[in-house]
Input
Amino acid sequence: MGHGKETPRQKMIGMMYLVLTALLAMNVSKDVLDAFVIVDEGITKTTENFYLKNDMLYQAFQQAATENEEKAGKWRDMAFEVKERSDKLYEYIQELKVEIVETSEGPESEALQEGKIIGENIQGKDNTDVPAQIMIGSNDDGKANDLRAALEGYEEYLLSLLPANAETTTESIKKSLDTENPPAKEGQQTTWQHEHFQGLPLIGVVTLMSGLQADVRNAESEVLRYLYSMID
Output
């Protein structure tokens, strides 16, 4: 969630997200697990706001192209390709979240409602086995590898739309979609996959993945604003 122009609400959610992420490696109490539900709800709300703002931009692209196809048509087409790719990645992450919860809770879980996850209804918030089983796998062959590749491919695509002089937007996207391995700790190197999904409680993983969805919408917004500026 590395957005350069954050609202106070986004900054608050970001700080809570970082603090609670730091607690993931500890033996977390029920209160901390419940706090993750609050953070996840906040991140989800922020992401929904990104979606609404992005939708207004898509409407603006369409209006501009309607008024002047020759001038704006190219940028509208690029924008709607960004939308298609962004929606696809967002939904892919959502499907992974649902799979984790469904595997842990069962398909009839009250935590699953019309494709959405109700964090407070998750019974096994502290389950550390299922997220690792799905995302890491028994031989490091889990779905986190595909997720990382999808994020990297999305970042590469967005950056391909920007010229070399769009440095601010480029840096913001790189920060939002960073999938580099974390720094070594005590001489031990781990991977982005293990950092996010190994040994972490289920509600923490769901929250982290909600954060990734917010990062996708943030990066989408950054590119849209740049492309719209090119119409003028």
Summary: Residues 30-67 form the longest helix (38 residues). Strands lie at 112-113, 116-117.
